UniProtKB/TrEMBL annotation, chain A:
Domain of life: Bacteria
Protein name: Lactate utilization protein
SUPFAM superfamilies: NagB/RpiA/CoA transferase-like (SSF100950)
Species in which this protein is naturally found: Paeniroseomonas aquatica
PANTHER family from the UniProt entry: LACTATE UTILIZATION PROTEIN C
InterPro entries: FTHF_cligase-like_sf (IPR024185), LUD_dom (IPR003741), NagB/RpiA_transferase-like (IPR037171)
Species classification: Bacteria, Pseudomonadati, Pseudomonadota, Alphaproteobacteria, Acetobacterales
Transmembrane segments: none
Domain LUD: start-end pairs: 119-225
Automatic annotation (TrEMBL), chain B:
Protein name (record): LutB/LldF family L-lactate oxidation iron-sulfur protein
Record InterPro entries: 4Fe4S_Fe-S-bd, 4Fe4S_Fe_S_CS, FTHF_cligase-like_sf, Helical_ferredxn, LUD_dom, LutB/LldF, LutB_C, NagB/RpiA_transferase-like
Domain 4Fe-4S ferredoxin-type span(s) in chain numbering: 304-335
Signal peptide: none
C-alpha cells in the first residue's frame, strides 16, 4: 500500500520503526495541549489601546473602520457608508441573528436579503466572529449564518464586529474558537472553513507592485460596535481605566 | 516539467542578453527586499521567531510519520478523503480520477508549486479537462504557455508592457485600442475574465502552505482571493500538498505564519489566510461538497536522514531568491526547473538528480544572504557545498574543472610551493598592471573579464601580509 511505503521510507530515513507507545502518547499530548510559542509584545496592551491597534492596522492595510455605540446605530452607519461610496443601497446580508436583530426599519431605503452571495451581488454585510489586533485581521469562520461567499464574490464587504471580540494575538482567537465552537461532523471545533482577512484583495503580480482589487472585494469596511466599556477610547470612559502593567497584561496561558 | 537545468550556462547567457528580462529584474530589484526589511524591523521578536520556526519544523520532521497519520485521521473524521501518492505519476492519476468522477469539464486552480512540479495542467488537458489558472501571474503565464520564474510572483520576468500586449492579443473581444492607464486596469480586466471561469468550474485545485495534524485542515495564503474562490465555489475541492507541509497544531502554524508573509512580500500578514477542514456541513449555504487531500511524497522521504533533510523545513517564502545576486542577474527560468534560486539549487538536485542539475549548486557566490534571511534558518550554502562534493565524488564535475581542482589541490598540499607560486603570480600581475588599478582584459581569463574587472594585486600575498602583521605585534 502506498501509505505504508511512504511511512516506511520516512522511518528508514529516521533510522527507526514506528514510534514506541510512550513517545506516541507524548506527541498526542502535545497535540491535545497545543502549547503556545512566543507571542509578539506588540498586541499586549490595555483594552482601549488594543482596539486602537486593531483599527490602525486595518487602515494600514487599506481597510476602513467606523466606530458606533451600539447595534441600533448600524443602519445609519451602513446607509451613510454606501451613500458616501456611491454604492446602491441594496446588499446581501449574513443570516446571523445578531444582524437580523438590528433595527433595519429605521432606515427603510436599505434593502437586503439574507443568504449566500451570488456573482451579481455588489455589497455584502458580514458578521465578524472575532478580530486580531496584532495585524488588523478579521476572523470569519464559515457557518450557516456566516456564508463564505460574502467574503469573496462582492466588490465591497462590510463587516459588523463587536469591540469585545477584538483580541490581541491569533492564539487568543484560536482559544475563543476552541471554547465556543462545536462541529457536529468531526466532533472537533473547526468549521468547514475559516478565513482570516487582512484588508481588501490585492495582487503584486504586475511588477511586484501591490494593487488593490484582485479577485476578492476591492473595499473592506468594518463597523465596530462599542459593546465593551473597558475597550472604549481613553477619555470616553467615566471610570478611570486600570493602570497598565509595564509590558501589558499577560495573555492567558502564556 | 521538462528539466533544462543541464543548460544552465546557456540559459544564463540568454537571460543576460535578454533586454526585456533584464528590465523586469531591474524594476523588481529591491521592492521585496525593502518591504521585507521594513516588516522585520517592525517586529522585534523576528529573530527569536526564526529559531522557533526552525524548531517546529525540525520537531515535525523527526516525527513526520506520526503527524501524517494524525492528520489523516482528522481529515477522515471530518468527512474528507486523503490520497497517499509516492510518485508524481500516482498524484496525476489520483487528481484525474477525482476530476473524472466529478464529471469535470473545467477545473479552476489556485497557485501551487507542487502542481507545477507534478505537471497537473498538462495531464488534465491531455484527458480533455480544461485547467484554468486563476492567480493573476499564473493566468498570464498560462496564456503565454510559460512556466513561473519565481515561486511567489510567477510573472516576475514580465514587464507591464508585456501584460498589456498579451491582454490585447488574447482578449480579442475587447476594443483593441483600449487604454490601460494604470496597473489596476490590467488587474480589473483579468478579474472580469476570470469571474465566469470561477462560477463554471466543477473542481477547484489548490496547493497548501500548511497541513494541520491537530485538526485535519489545509491552509492557503493568498492576496488576491483567487485561491478562496477556487476552493469555495466548485463542487469538489482538491488540496495538493507534499508530505513535509504538515505541522502539529494551529499554534505551530500560527508561529510560522508570522514569518511567512513578512519574509515573502514584506506584509505583516497576507490578505487571506484560510483554514479548510473537509467539505460543506449540512446547514452550510456554500462550500464544496467533496474535499480531497492529495499527499505527495515524490522524492521527499528520500531526503530524510540525509544531509539535505533540513531543506524540508522550507516554507516557500522566496526570500532566498529575492536576496540572491545570481537569481537577480539571470531570473528564474535559467535554473531550468520548477524551483529557482538558492532553495531550488538545493531542492532540485534532490528531486530530479544531481546528474542533470550539477550546475545549480555551483551557481552560487556563497555570499550567504539566502541563509541570513531564511525564516527557518536553512543552511543553504552548506547544502550546496554538499551537492558539489557529491557531484565531484560521482565524477560528474566537468573535466576542465576537475583538472583545475586537481592542480590546485597538488599545490595546496605543498604549502611552500603554493606560497612561491602565488607570490610569483601576484608579482607578475602587479607588475603588468602597475598604475592601472584593474585589468579590463587578461589572457586566459576572458570569462572573468568579459563581465567584470579583475583588480590588480597589491601589497603581496595574503600569507605575506599575515606574516608581516604578526611580526609587528
Amino acid at each position: 500500500m502506498t501509505k505504508d511505503a511512504i511511512l516506511g521510507a520516512i522511518r528508514r530515513g529516521l533510522k527507526r520503526g514506528p514510534l514506541p507507545a510512550d513517545q506516541q502518547a507524548m506527541l498526542a499530548g502535545r497535540l491535545a495541549t497545543h502549547p503556545r510559542h512566543l507571542i509578539p509584545a506588540r498586541s499586549r496592551l490595555p483594552r482601549p489601546e488594543q482596539v486602537a491597534l486593531f483599527i490602525r492596522n486595518v487602515e494600514k492595510e487599506f481597510g476602513t473602520v467606523e466606530r458606533v455605540p451600539d447595534h441600533a446605530a448600524i443602519p445609519a452607519a451602513m446607509g451613510e457608508y454606501l451613500a458616501a461610496q456611491n454604492l446602491p443601497s441594496r446588499f446581501v446580508m449574513a443570516p446571523h441573528p445578531e444582524l437580523t436583530a438590528v433595527p433595519w426599519a429605521d432606515r427603510p431605503l436599505l434593502a437586503f436579503e439574507q443568504r449566500r452571495a451570488e456573482a451579481t451581488d455588489q455589497v455584502s454585510l458580514q458578521h465578524g466572529y472575532a478580530a486580531v489586533a496584532e495585524t488588523g485581521t478579521l476572523m470569519l469562520p464559515s457557518a450557516p449564518e456566516r456564508p463564505t461567499t460574502l467574503n469573496l464574490l462582492v466588490e465591497t464587504e462590510v463587516v459588523v464586529l463587536r469591540a469585545s471580540r477584538v483580541v490581541g494575538a491569533y492564539e487568543e482567537a484560536w482559544d475563543l474558537l476552541r471554547a465556543e465552537s462545536r462541529d457536529a461532523r468531526s466532533g472537533g471545533f473547526m468549521p468547514r472553513n475559516i478565513m482570516f482577512v487582512t484588508g481588501p484583495s490585492r495582487s503584486a503580480d504586475i511588477e511586484q507592485t501591490l494593487e488593490l482589487g484582485a479577485h476578492g472585494p476591492r473595499r473592506l469596511h468594518v463597523i465596530l460596535v462599542d459593546d465593551d466599556p473597558a475597550a472604549l477610547p481613553m477619555g470616553d470612559v467615566a471610570v478611570p481605566p486600570p493602570v497598565a502593567v509595564p509590558g501589558g497584561p499577560p495573555a492567558p496561558g502564556d | 516539467m521538462h528539466v533544462t537545468s543541464p543548460a544552465f550556462k546557456e540559459n544564463s547567457a540568454r537571460a543576460l542578453a535578454n533586454p526585456g528580462l533584464q528590465k523586469a529584474l531591474g524594476t523588481a530589484k529591491g521592492a521585496f527586499l525593502q518591504r521585507r526589511a521594513a516588516a522585520v524591523a517592525n517586529l522585534p521578536e523576528f529573530e527569536r521567531l526564526r529559531d522557533i520556526g526552525r524548531d517546529i519544523k525540525n520537531h515535525t520532521l523527526a516525527n513526520l510519520d506520526f503527524y501524517l497519520e494524525a492528520f489523516e485521521q482528522k481529515v477522515l473524521a471530518a468527512g474528507g478523503k486523503v490520497h497517499w501518492c509516492s510518485s508524481a505519476d500516482d498524484a496525476r492519476a489520483v487528481v484525474l480520477k477525482i476530476c473524472k468522477a466529478a464529471g469535470a469539464k473545467t477545473v479552476t486552480k489556485g497557485k501551487s508549486m507542487i502542481s507545477e512540479e507534478l505537471g497537473i495542467n498538462h495531464h488534465l488537458e491531455a484527458h480533455g479537462i480544461q485547467p484554468v489558472e486563476t492567480d493573476l501571474g499564473e493566468y498570464i503565464l498560462q496564456l503565454r504557455g510559460e512556466a513561473p520564474s519565481h515561486i511567489i510572483a510567477p510573472a516576475f520576468h514580465l514587464n507591464r508592457e508585456d501584460w498589456e500586449a498579451d491582454f490585447r492579443r488574447l482578449h480579442t473581444d475587447l476594443p483593441a485600442d483600449r487604454v490601460f492607464h494604470e496597473r489596476r486596469d490590467i488587474l480589473a480586466e483579468a478579474r472580469t475574465r476570470l469571474r465566469d471561469r470561477f462560477l463554471a468550474a466543477d473542481v477547484g485545485i489548490t496547493g497548501a502552505n500548511f497541513l494541520i495534524a491537530e485538526t485535519g485542515s489545509s491552509v492557503i495564503v493568498t492576496n488576491e482571493g483567487n485561491g478562496d474562490l477556487t476552493q469555495t465555489l466548485p463542487r469538489v475541492h482538491i488540496a495538493l500538498a507534499s508530505i513535509e507541509k504538515v505541522v502539529p497544531t494551529l499554534e505551530d502554524a500560527t508561529s510560522l505564519l508570522r514569518l511567512l508573509a513578512r519574509s515573502a512580500t514584506g506584509q505583516d500578514f497576507s490578505v487571506y489566510t484560510t483554514f479548510s477542514t473537509a467539505a460543506r456541513r449540512e446547514a452550510d449555504l456554500d462550500g464544496p461538497e467533496e474535499y480531497h487531500v492529495v499527499l505527495v511524497d515524490s522524492g521527499r522521504s528520500n531526503m530524510i536522514g540525509t544531509e539535505f533533510q533540513e531543506m524540508l523545513r522550507c516554507i516557500r517564502c522566496a526570500a532566498c531568491m529575492n536576496h540572491c545576486p545570481v537569481y537577480g542577474a539571470v531570473g528564474g527560468h535559467a535554473y531550468g526547473w520548477v524551483y529557482p534560486g538558492p532553495m531550488g539549487s538545493v531542492l532540485t538536485p534532490s528531486l530530479v538528480g544531481i546528474d542533470k542539475t550539477g550546475m545549480l549548486p555551483n551557481a552560487s557566490t556563497f555570499c550567504g544572504r539566502c541563509e541570513a534571511v531564511c525564516p527557518v534558518k536553512i543552511p543553504l550554502p552548506k547544502m550546496m557545498r554538499h551537492w558539489r562534493e557529491r557531484e565531484f565524488e560521482r565524477h560528474l564535475t566537468p573535466a576542465a574543472a576537475r583538472s583545475n581542482l586537481a592542480l590546485w589541490a597538488w599545490f595546496a598540499k605543498r604549502p611552500g610551493l603554493y606560497r612561491l607560486a602565488t607570490r610569483a603570480a601576484t608579482g607578475v600581475l602587479g607588475l603588468l598592471g602597475r598604475g592601472k588599478g584593474a585589468f579590463t582584459s587578461l589572457p586566459l581569463a576572458g570569462g572573468w573579464t568579459a563581465g567584470r574587472d579583475l583588480p590588480v594585486p597589491e601589497g603581496g600575498t595574503f600569507m605575506a601580509q599575515y606574516a608581516k602583521t604578526r611580526r609587528r605585534r
